[in-house]
């Protein structure tokens, strides 16, 4: 046996095998790249070359569309790597800046009123909300004036500082409530996934906060604001889609449930 | 059994085999032609172009900004723009007219999702970084379910959208102002 | 003679043990997402179980069966002691290590990304590295099969390679090459992101790489089954292989056209050009050819057995078949399931029909029927046939074996037929639960319930299988004699070079991969700005 006897057109199997394969390839290529593209009256190609390149899958940038961006929508780009890894210095700077936040958000990051607790919140959440307050995508009479003057660096430092703080129980703990169905299962046919699949107890979708121990009033107000589209800084409606599909009763239940929970069930994120 | 017999039976076997192989090849060729024919005449062909986009910035510029999502009436039919993200479609309820050629353009903002409209053959993947385009046409007025058909992490089971097909005139009336239509919240 | 029984038994036992675990998970999944289960308060558990089920059933179980069977074929068909036994054990232990490494993060919920990976979802790096180790372990087997054949050829220059070994080596080459797609995806794309060297990944390219592996892997799973069809069944039922040449051609066709067709898995993907989708669709149609040839040859071989047993008439011979022989039963069941599954496959193959069932439960039904049904039932038959030769003990309870095979067949039909049906209704795959109370999907509830019941029948059958094998280890000793393969009606005296070697066909396989995959992979790899941020799963 030698390769020379095998790989030669004198070998019937070689010529048959290679010939048939090549023939099928050529026929299917002509059909796939030239005949079929032009057989579709609903697609226009500039010329044969355009048809071939399109059929081959040469990536093309989508045509740009000029639309004036909506001021009330978030302009933050969030990925799992948006924030650099925190260091002690950044956290220290954040701690200094955070002194002015303490009036509402508490000296330990736990609010004594109905402002959100920030201690141990995911850094991406604080980062995104501060950016949104600064840009006007989210507004609040008290919060906006604080945020408008922050620099990018200050926002990053604050995010890292609050993420670094230990998670503490709420200032006014309430007896723990059983998990309502809307929180455990969501409502599939209404397009509602379990809350925990984004909000930390199952997994965290970057930019979604964990909610355990937050003020019931605050949670309810936010859900209602999302449902009515009064609040619109959730990128591409990711939370409005959910809140709109919730019934008022489900909003009450979810808000009361999360307010009653200790923060220790929340998973950490990388 | 003599040597000749053996030879003869081998010949018979070879002939029968060849016949069967020919039949098998014919079956396959006919099926391939059938598929090509159906594709052209029923207008179900893969999208003609590969188009790319940056998923983490689709909300900032380009055709998938929030204000441009939904259905828009154009000269040659309706274009629907939608995105999939963990764990919803936007718009969560797509509004289209009946008996109208519709171009669906969609992409993903994060991971791989899929759009499947039950009771139709509208079915496409949403791969982040790329734009999916599919032609569709609804023959029947009504509501259709539109689940995400690809695993997109732990909330996948809750990712169900809707398509509402309405009367042509009704759609045209709603589209008069030139905005992007959807049936969200209705 | 089987000299390395311990090696082969170790592969089989590990294969069937992990099969038992994965089967149990599968039955649980069927139950929990059906109307008779209650919704999981933690849907992640479902996806975790699904990842484990898929990883074991897709990567570990069939690979170990192919390896164990491959070693057995090498020793018995070539009648020579296995060369490289130490390496074989090294491969085995690599698979053990890889499986453990992969399963731990999965069990902890750190890698619930499903066995299909789905970047940009990214799980624990250990999961991916474990899978790579499993593949590397199996590559040792590929090398050993090639080496053993080479050693035999040196000793028997020009002699026809026994069909079983020819097919076995073809299968090993197919696996070696098809695994490269997923290996590239893991090594170049996913693992660098999972360990934190990179933060973005091209999800479209990853899907193309994976399609390279995901379709041809099915033919790798299928190889032991087809080898059994050709080289065990006719012997076991007292017949002859109708045509040795046709058998070789079938295996060669698998080698050449199983590979460059994987993009029919990406018909609905936006990153693959329509032209390549068409080419892959056409080649997918071609892969039906070796199966059609096999169906013909095996039916003819079976007919020979029947006529030798006195069968008469156009169809009368069917009654003369040894229906109480487990091998006959397994073959019949396997063919029925292959027929239905193959017909389903022809639907998946065409873009137009695929759009109505792509990524629905139809697909899950389809590959469970083909793999879990037609293929795995022959794995059972192979094990039953080999067991006395491996253990030196007889499997006495043939009735139990028949019951087991019947249950598997019935279970598979009850599971997969309704599964196909709800797929046509548009039920999506891989959801932890469904709201069957909703009127829009309530009509699917009954079908899903049947599927779940089928799942339990399968579980019972699988456990029975393990029980039969375990009891076989303790039954009275017997001398099973040398392990033999079927003879052809016309045993080959000389075989043309091309049908006795793999080089030409391996070259064609690689060439077709280059033509059918080269351009799509290159353009995606070189295009800028298609990489997207990774999404880490399960809160690392």
Global shape of chain C: globular
On the 0-100 scale, what is the average pLDDT of chain B? 89
Main beta-sheet annotation of chain B? 6 strands, mixed
Number of domains of chain B: 2
Q: Percent helix among the residues of chain C?
A: 55-70%
Low-confidence stretches of chain B: none
Extract low-pLDDT stretches of chain C: none
Biggest interface, residues from each chain: B-C, 69 and 73 residues
The H-and-E topology of chain B, N to C, reads as: HEEEEEEEEEEEH
What's the average pLDDT of chain C?
94
Tell me what portion of residues of chain C adopts beta-strand conformation: under 5%
Order of helices and strands of chain C: HHHEHHEHHHHHHHHHHHHEE
CATH topology of chain C: Cytochrome C Oxidase, Chain A
Based on DSSP secondary structure assignment, what is the total number of beta strands of chain C? 4
- Spatial separation of the terminal alpha carbons of chain B: 84 Å
CATH architecture of chain C, by name, is: Up-down Bundle
Word description of this protein:
- The complex is a heterotrimer of chains A (270), B (186) and C (540).
- Chain A is mostly helical and 270 residues long.
- Chain A has two domains: 3-55, no CATH class; 88-260, Cytochrome Bc1 Complex, Chain D, domain 2 (Orthogonal Bundle), CATH 1.10.760.
- Chain A has helices at 3-6, 12-39, 48-56, 88-98, 102-105, 123-135, 143-148, 152-164, 181-184, 196-199, 216-227, 240-245, 248-259, and one strand at residues 59-61.
- The radius of gyration of chain A is 28 Å and the shape is elongated.
- Chain B has two helices and eleven strands, in the order αβββββββββββα.
- In chain B, a hairpin with a 2-residue loop joins strand 3 (77-85) and strand 4.
- Chain B has helices at 3-41, 168-174, and strands at 50-52, 70-74, 77-85, 88-90, 93-97, 102-108, 113-116, 123-126, 130-136, 142-147, 160-166.
- Helices cover 25% and strands 32% of the residues of chain B.
- In chain B, strands 1, 2, 3, 4, 6 and 9 form a six-stranded mixed β-sheet that branches.
- Chain B folds into two domains: 1-45; 51-175, Sandwich (Immunoglobulin-like).
- Chain C is mostly helical and 540 residues long.
- Chain C has a single domain (5-536), classed as Cytochrome C Oxidase, Chain A.
- Chain C has 17 helices and four strands.
- In chain C, helix 6 packs across helix 13 and helix 8 (244-257) runs parallel beside helix 17.
- The interface between A and C is large, with 48 and 57 residues.
- Strand 1 of chain A pairs parallel with strand 1 of chain B.
